[in-house]
Amino acid sequence: MASLENAFVGAVSSGFANLAVYPLDLAKTVIQTQLKQGDLYPSSDVQADVSTKESTGSSKPKKHGIQQIKPKPEPPTATKESLEQRYKHALDVIVKVYRNEGFGGLYHGLSASLLGTFIQSFSYFFWYTLIRRHYFRVKKVKGEAARFSTIEELLLSMLAAATSQLFTNPINIVSTKQQTRRGLEGDNSFKAIAKEVYDEDGITGFWKSLKVSLVLTINPSITYASAEKLKDILYHVEWNAKDLNDSSLQLKPGQNFLIGVLSKIISTCLTHPLIVAKASLQRSSSKFTSFQEVLTYLYRHEGAHALWKGLLPQLTKGVIVQGLLFMFKGELAKHIKKLLFLLQVYRKGRTIKAN
């Protein structure tokens, strides 16, 4: 299929897949962004200086190169509980949100999330198709082997994902803030939160955490590179230069689903600490400024296991979405191909009749 057709099929499939598991997405975002010590802010004070200040009465902090993270003064009890309600696991989040906010609460921030998903998937598959086709032609001209190696698959996917992130990061920022503003009063609409982001950080606020998002392009890269290799290993998919980006056309729905699940498990387990860091940077009222700061804080205050917190809901949501995405995309691509063939036959028939 052409770049635009492939992008549209990928975006629609991704939208349906994410809609099916959105409550799980909400749960994993809340789990990943809740912290043990309440709301936080970055500070250049060293925690050991606290006792010195108290004894000497000096308020002058000692400067250090690395920012430390310290708890803010205790907020009012009601506000603190609503902002940082503790959840034990993903199911606990879903149950409590349903009890407190009803069925609609489970789809909090859905519009922004679906918009972001559609644009991100459309952009990714468009660039992914375009870049792969162009690189394939270059290899063909040079007389090199037509099939892509694992390294080539990774690099091409990373380039496509990085390009799409430049366009979709602003929507992801708003969507994550909507999901993590539990219990806060005020307008929580897409427009209101977008204005809030602009007022707080200016236009650059919409690309906050872009650095970690670009690093995370390794996630879809591993997913799609793994998928291509798994297709070869499990189902011996034939190489077809015509269907360069549609090898899923050769597989059944269940086979495409399995490929999506296995490839997503591999990529998620390898990149989960960065996923946690990205969610923490984008959360509502986040005071972290870099993903290194998030990872350092979590490691020091909650232990190494905190870098993989929310892994189960992330895996559950991720593998189902990726499995459904691969399955929907494969079936939609088949139907679109049939539809285009029928249209072509119909046009030829009309031309013959006209002559």
TrEMBL record:
Segments traversing the membrane: 106-130
Entry keyword set: Membrane, Peroxisome, Repeat, Transmembrane, Transmembrane helix, Transport
Annotated segments matching region Disordered: 46-82
InterPro entries in alphabetical order: MCP_dom_sf, MCP_transmembrane, Peroxisomal_Ade_carrier
One annotated GO biological process: peroxisome organization
Domain of life (superkingdom): Eukaryota
Cellular-component GO terms for this entry: peroxisomal membrane
Protein family (similarity comment): Belongs to the mitochondrial carrier (TC 2.A.29) family.
Name listed for the protein in its UniProt record: KLLA0B11319p
Organism of origin: Kluyveromyces lactis (strain ATCC 8585 / CBS 2359 / DSM 70799 / NBRC 1267 / NRRL Y-1140 / WM37) (Yeast)
